[in-house]
Amino acid sequence: MAETFYLKVVASDRQFYEGDCEMITFIGVDGSYGILPHHECMVTPLEAGELTLQIDGVKKEAAVGEGFVEILPNQVTVLTDFCEWADEIDIRRAEEAKQRAEERLRQKQSIIEYHSSKAALSRAMARLKVTDKIR
Amino acid sequence: MSSMREIRNRIKSIEDTMKITNAMYLISSTKLKKAKKTLENTEPYFELLQSTITDIMAHSTEIPHKYFDKRANVAEEKRKKGYIVVTGDKGLAGAYNHNVIKLAEEEMAKPGENVLFLVGQVGARAFSKANVKIDMEFLYLAQKPSQYGARSIAETVIEAFRQKALDEVYIIYTKMLSNAKIEPQVLQLLPLKRKTFEELGKKPDTEDYVRILWYSPSPKEVLDKIVPNYVKGLIYGALVEAFATQTYARMTAMESATDNAKEMLQDLSLRYNRQRQAAITQEITEIAGGANAL
Hints:
- The complex is a heterodimer.
- Helix content of chain A is 30%, strand content 44%.
- Chain A is α+β, with helices and mostly antiparallel strands.
- The model of chain A has no long low-confidence stretch (mean pLDDT 86).
- In chain A, α1 packs antiparallel against α2 (111-134).
- In chain B, α2 links the parallel β1 and β2.
- Helices cover 60% and strands 15% of the residues of chain B.
- Chain B has a domain at 57-248: ATP synthase, F1 complex, gamma subunit (Pyruvate Kinase, Chain: A, domain 1, 3-Layer(aba) Sandwich), CATH 3.40.1380.10.
- Chain B contains seven helices and six strands; from the N terminus they run αβαβαβαββααβα.
- The A-B interface holds A 8, 10-15, 28-30, 33, 40-45, 66-68, 70, 72-73, 77, 79, 81-82, 112, 115-116 and B 38, 41-42, 44-45, 48-49, 52, 55-56, 147, 151-152, 155, 159, 211-217, 221-222, 225-226, 229, 232-233, 236-237.
């Protein structure tokens, strides 16, 4: 059996996953990260995007919101706004959210509005990207 | 002594009031079930968020950052303090709203310039009369805490903090201590307070102490990203908790109101029956006295 570490993924509305995991990949501010057991202690922000967990040799994909990842000796904690398995995502809602965000981005906005529309768009894109793979 | 008619009228009116309080009790108890579920789902996040951030802070004592900046050069009376006050949209929840507002007033009595961010109608009404600067009202949030709402509050206060329109930001909400006790609380959001290891209860020579966290890509960028997220998470958690306690407060208030009404009805019906008996007895004595006189 492959080596594992203890993983905790907590979303703001539920405890998403708790248990052993072989590998986790996520999107950070400066690109993709992959974490294996015995990783160095690290804190890094999490961007909205894909989260892949490898449990018992099987890869599972989920969409996550913004948050952060804390890596301690053989324990990884992911805290995020939302986290959904691919089959839980409401595709139509995500499509609509994407369109709304794009609509807003086309208009002239203040910096704050621009950032919040951008964030909304990236959340919608994260959901759609994960669902695209299973379809 | 009041007449029989008066007592009857009172019984009628109390019965009507009881119908309302009882209905409100039933509604709030079903709502509470839902609110409690949301609270249970959010609690792990809320707690883990706080403990993880304190942990990260404790390991990053050396890093200067704008969110740690206490702005000590600003005099106590000149400090601009932002308070997010979470109340309910409606009354009839016992002392719930009153306690939050009282605590907010106590906090505001401290030196400094106050700016209010209000959640909930009751607080908005209470403070609109008082002479306080209200920056923004988020009225829609008290009944339905949402990520979206928390995000907009967080963005507003963080922006104000960055532009030095605010030096300190607090949130005042009601926390459920145990199942039977709720209490209003003040939580400091910004600037972030660093706790020392002694405060965390860790010994200086343990492995935890010497462990060094690596910030990827850089400490500044990590904190830039994490802190707004943390503030938003805290606000969301506080909103969820406030809603649950509000429903709980309303349920208990309505329960005791219904109980009181029942007690009063019992008392009144006893008095009514006594009065009725007295009237009958009096009539009989009058008839008997009249018959004797014949």
